[in-house]
């Protein structure tokens, strides 16, 4: 039996990873921050199966203690300030968690003299203003947000510890991945939640930013499996995890509305563009300039050939199924709220 330590265990990826590791017989330890009101987030349903440790990515002493308590064989660093928009409002906090926090975790492993394997959650946002299409492991980084910049630091410090100290440290450059557990501050969940509310008459329309931004979207369940595969290899390496497909925010919206039998038609241009219900003519989607990023990332498209060949990784959930699952889940949530 192996011991695994997960930072960010209460998040979307952390919860799916915890489920996967528990199924494989691991003893799972999860780091949570001490709060006045304890919140188990996405692991509420399995909280009795996880051993929680109070620690913080900005406090190396607490991370050293977490390593000693967990005696981890594998460490998955998923903790991050991961909302790009917030990184513009809180750039220092983002750097402390997403950059320095990675160094703290690596140091905690090194200073406790463990042989723990380490996984760092890198991100496609590091590519930013993309230098080639599609993006692969060797594509130069050009981050376009404080979040992306901090993640580049975390990525490179992980590679440095691997090469300097011989640590088994991997970076997974994960492209956009969503799920029913995604927070509502993210545009994908914002869309599916709004669609469910519109279905039940609780909301009139949804306001969005750049409809033409292109992303490579997969499901978190598939992506956490890739994380685990990376730490089962004979030698550490870095991998792009993606779908090899790019979709616009507009496509995501269209499929979400199709799930409730509404077909959208688009009229107007730029900030004046609106999405109308083809049958009723009612405006269901409008543009709000406040949701545009200061520096937009227009296109992300990952090449996961290396992961497919070396890790034997495959993706099971398609883009359309991803959107449908998110909409269906939000419909169930609304039905519970309304006691339907």
Automatic annotation (TrEMBL):
<dbReference type="GO" id="GO:0070401">
    <property type="term" value="F:NADP+ binding"/>
</dbReference>
<protein>
    <recommendedName>
        <fullName>GDP-mannose 4,6-dehydratase</fullName>
        <ecNumber>4.2.1.47</ecNumber>
    </recommendedName>
</protein>
<dbReference type="InterPro" id="IPR036291">
    <property type="entry name" value="NAD(P)-bd_dom_sf"/>
</dbReference>
<dbReference type="Pfam" id="PF16363">
    <property type="entry name" value="GDP_Man_Dehyd"/>
</dbReference>
<dbReference type="InterPro" id="IPR016040">
    <property type="entry name" value="NAD(P)-bd_dom"/>
</dbReference>
<keyword id="KW-0521">NADP</keyword>
<feature type="binding site">
    <location>
        <position position="205"/>
    </location>
    <ligand>
        <name>NADP(+)</name>
    </ligand>
</feature>
<comment type="similarity">
    <text>Belongs to the NAD(P)-dependent epimerase/dehydratase family. GDP-mannose 4,6-dehydratase subfamily.</text>
</comment>
<feature type="domain" description="NAD(P)-binding">
    <location>
        <begin position="5"/>
        <end position="326"/>
    </location>
</feature>
<dbReference type="GO" id="GO:0008446">
    <property type="term" value="F:GDP-mannose 4,6-dehydratase activity"/>
</dbReference>
<keyword id="KW-0456">Lyase</keyword>
<dbReference type="InterPro" id="IPR006368">
    <property type="entry name" value="GDP_Man_deHydtase"/>
</dbReference>
<comment type="function">
    <text>Catalyzes the conversion of GDP-D-mannose to GDP-4-dehydro-6-deoxy-D-mannose.</text>
</comment>
<dbReference type="GO" id="GO:0042351">
    <property type="term" value="P:'de novo' GDP-L-fucose biosynthetic process"/>
</dbReference>
